[in-house]
Amino acid sequence: MFFALQLLPLHLKTIKAMKQTVFLILLWLMCPSAIMASKGLSREASRRVQERVIAEWMQREREVGREILSQPEAGRAVSSERATMPFWYTVYGSAPMGTRSLWISLHGGGGVPQEVNDGQWDNQKRLYQPEEGVYVAPRAPWNAWNMWCQEPIDELYEKLIRLMVACEGVDPDRVYLMGYSAGGDGVWREAPRLADHWAAASMMAGHPGDVSLVNLRNLPFMIWCGALDEAYQRNTLCAQRGEQMDSLQRDCPEGYVHRTEIMPGKAHWMDREDRAALPWMRRYVRNPYPSAIVWQEEEVLRPAFYWLQAPADELQRGRRVDVSVRDNVITISRCDYGSLTLWLNDELVNLDRRVTVKCQGRTVFRGRVARTEENMVASLGERGDPRYCFPARVQVRLATR
Fold it and tell me: How many CB atoms sit inside 10 A of residue 385's CB?
């Protein structure tokens, strides 16, 4: 009897522990993020960790960048396994380090002999002169009509931006893209494809092809073309695309900021009147965390866009996601994927409160989301952009396909 009484407290403790375990398992099944949040960082701790993670990343990028910039001017280039892109650059104005703008200016030419493209590159080096910022004129890796938008070049644009952010004090939210003729062809495609990279973009005398413009919801965009530029119907097609932007903005007045300039009396060369694009673009700064996103995959597939990420094995041209966020509620009105990852921070939602995710009227997630260093390292490593260093993420499974 005495032995049984001695075991009774232990037995009660065991029952209590079992009850707690069952409770935690049920809580995890109903709301896994509630347990994760208990192990997450506070807002202030998250800010300090993020600053350290970004500083360490910047130092690594600076070491890589210094090696590139130490090369003679003729040998400077950014490279990947599949392509190399030489570049020339200069700095205008005296903005403090960390606040400079970056102007990436794409030359014309295309499917012509190398020496012709080299001449167009030399011309582009001095074609535009911003009041302030780092002005970069890259040399296309190929001599082809699509030399500025072939699939391997996306990585080179990203490397060029990282280089200038780390070594020349560029603000990653003030990166501008422009290009003339074949360079304009590139802008037509790269502005929507990499809309989450640019503060604004301007297309000069290029051909739009079949590219969609829906991704430009949060990217101010200019169209410049001579009214007499009849080759390949550039004048007609550019005017039509301007009308498409008008229509998109009518349907979404808070987005699709744009301006269309079809220059009377001008042919392919616009006598540099298109230089007015630079002060117009400079008015805008990238918002890396827009409250509404339209993301449609183009010919070259991208796994992430702003604060969204889709499954790599499901990417396909034409697939689309429409998402908005307000008052800690994320609404997915369209998603052509079986799941979606939402990268979050306290500028998008209040991570001290529960986050709700709805898809077509159905709640697919509701709970607290933890801030963790692992999320910051993962997102910064994948995106290579200090503004896309996210402390939190939610992956939702959808039944929309």
Answer: 20
